[in-house]
Amino acid sequence: MRIDIITVLPELLRSPFEHSILKRAADKGLLEVHLHDLRTFGKGAYKQVDDYAFGGGAGMVMMIEPLVDCIESLKSQRNYDEVIYLTPDGHTLNQKIANTLSLKQNLLLICGHYKGIDQRVRDHWVTMEISIGDYVLSGGELAAAVLVDTIGRLIPGVLNDETSALTDSFQDDLLAPPVYTRPADFNGLTVPEVLLSGHEAKIEEWRYEQSIERTRIRRPDLLKDGDD
Ligand code: ADE
User: For 24-42, what is each residue's pLDDT tens digit?
Assistant: First the structure.
């Protein structure tokens, strides 16, 4: 998979992709992330990328021209499955969206700033709008990093058995069960007996029950029928 990210702050985004699982995905040749500095496409001597909002009001708006120039230059090089704008008024990210996106080949992400991007870009170039939660970040970069992380770990071949995504929270609309490691007794704090039993079927059953119980208490909304 290849992910292109349009941003005014490429430096903010560099580090998350140079570590851990995303780094491993890149090293294995399974994920390429390319950062594009929108300023390169800015207007005039000051490489302007934002301007006052028509109609007045506080806050700047990211201009249509630099964005469209950047998007079109990328689109002329490959076909994108989705052009995604990270925005607090987008569709809230969940595991199902991440699973779907992890099967794509080329994604183009746009990080907004200030009051957002010119609506015409959203209407004519953007194919999907994603929010990472009901709160406002100062820019789309951290949201893009979250999105790439959650997609990247799902790309077939990125995770191994130890890190398998199949047992993650949300994969079956259930939260993951509690986990323990050595020692089995830490100053009298013990581990549930069943986990030490070696009885695989019983362990599976216990984990499933714990998942249900945890989900019932913490996220009863997940147990309700139907899609989000
Ligand atoms: N940009 C600012 N806030 C955001 C959010 N919650 N999700 C995605 N992009 C954003």
Answer: 999 999 999 999 999 999 9
